[in-house]
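Private note to self, pasted from the team thread so I don't lose it. Backbone tokens:
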């Protein structure tokens, strides 16, 4: 059990004893049991960073020494020297795999070091023999060769490097190999599933979640046709909504900050919504290009089309399931429902824009942004959740600032809207003040 979890348990046990759910001796036994777990290896970011830093420093020093004498070496000697980083990585990894696989300090740095030395040797060999001249081909070959390292010792450090390298490859190759990108993403998912289902370290889960989310979202715009609203607007909204719904299904965490699958999609969806409020040019949604693409190669267009279809089916399933679950709870949150319905709102927005109803579409986008902010603010105040309050305030304030300086909006309309919002906030402040007075 992580330190934060033990601290939380230490605070909760006296409450359970006070309410009669546990006897004092039972609470003491539970406390002692989990305190003993401290002796077990923990997933410490400090240990991992120290090990990786040491490996990088040694590897960088070796590369500098070799580079100083590289021009004086013949091809055979260069080939031999090119293999030295990989050999050193294999030796360290082999020792960790055979003798220290139960120690985290050895597992993660050894796996990460081997993955990096593999890249170094592959690059040197490719440069020496002119085998690979395209950087995207080099990264792709490295990814395929490095994939087993995610599973040999269940190295999450390798998974982090792997997914960021996938993103780098996607940004280099563009949408010409979209199908290969999705295969690479799927190939790394079993490791993430193992961590989510077996591992108890919240830090490890958070690092992997942030890595998967950021790399996939940034890669999305590199492998799809951003000129098609079907993918650039509706597609990214669908992806973020599915991620948010996945976060709802995952384990309950005490803070929104500890759940990247909720916090990141909320921020991403708000950015998409703000882009829509600037009246982007949407003459056509692009339905006819769903599986064929406009300028994409046929295989890439088909892969992206299948992925969008999978996202859409997943979104429908998650939305229907979560709405029924949320609706049956006494502590149901409207924010959960609204966020899951964002793809539907974006679809309606695109239909209105493509049919010439630009004003109605803009009003819809602005109303959705303001309404979501108000809901977060309301629920944050009601539950004393500072993160939800901050999210609500951020939604509203950013929208107000953007609209205040937006020259496309009539001054009279902006003035009336600002007055109305100001009166609404004043009324909310009065109601909250009266409520607090009654509670006192």
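Design output:
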């Amino acid at each position: 059990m992580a330190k934060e979890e033990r601290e939380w348990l230490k605070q909760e046990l006296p409450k359970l004893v006070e309410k009669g759910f546990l006897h004092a001796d039972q609470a003491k036994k539970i406390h002692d049991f989990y305190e003993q777990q401290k002796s077990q290896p923990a997933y410490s970011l400090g240990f991992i960073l120290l090990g990786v830093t040491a490996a990088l420093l040694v590897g960088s020093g070796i590369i500098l020494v070799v580079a100083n004498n590289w021009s004086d070496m013949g091809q055979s000697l260069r080939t031999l020297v090119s293999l030295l980083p990989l050999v050193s990585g294999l030796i360290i990894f082999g020792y960790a795999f055979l003798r220290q696989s139960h120690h985290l300090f050895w597992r993660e740095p050894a796996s990460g070091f081997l993955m990096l030395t593999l890249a170094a040797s592959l690059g040197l060999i490719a440069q020496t023999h002119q085998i690979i001249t395209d950087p995207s081909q080099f990264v792709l070959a490295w990814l395929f060769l490095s994939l087993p390292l995610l599973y040999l010792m269940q190295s999450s450090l390798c998974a982090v490097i792997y997914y960021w390298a996938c993103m780098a490859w996607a940004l280099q190759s563009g949408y010409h190999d979209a199908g290969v990108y999705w295969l690479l993403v799927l190939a790394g998912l079993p490791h993430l599933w193992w961590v989510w289902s077996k591992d108890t370290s919240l830090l490890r889960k958070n690092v992997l979640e942030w890595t998967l989310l950021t790399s996939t979202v940034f890669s999305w715009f590199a492998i799809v046709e951003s000129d098609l609203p079907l993918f650039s607007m509706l597609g990214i909204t669908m992806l973020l909504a599915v991620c948010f719904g996945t976060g709802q299904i995952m384990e309950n965490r005490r803070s929104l900050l500890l759940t990247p699958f909720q916090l990141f999609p909320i921020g991403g969806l708000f950015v998409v919504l703000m882009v829509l409020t600037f009246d982007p040019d949407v003459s056509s949604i692009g339905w006819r290009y769903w599986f064929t693409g406009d300028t994409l190669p046929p295989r890439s267009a088909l892969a992206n089309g299948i992925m969008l279809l999978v996202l859409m089916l997943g979104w429908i399933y998650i939305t229907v399931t979560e709405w029924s679950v949320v609706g049956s709870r006494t502590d149901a949150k409207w924010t959960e429902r609204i966020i899951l319905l964002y793809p539907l709102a974006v679809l309606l927005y695109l239909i209105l824009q493509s049919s010439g109803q630009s004003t109605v579409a803009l009003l819809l986008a602005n109303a959705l942004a303001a309404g979501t902010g108000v809901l977060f603010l309301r629920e944050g105040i009601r539950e004393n959740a500072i993160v939800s309050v901050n999210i609500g305030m951020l939604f509203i304030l950013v929208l107000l600032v953007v609209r205040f300086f937006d020259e496309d909006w009539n001054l009279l309309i902006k003035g009336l809207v600002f007055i109305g919002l100001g009166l609404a906030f004043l009324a909310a402040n009065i109601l909250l003040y009266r409520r607090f007075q009654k509670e006192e």
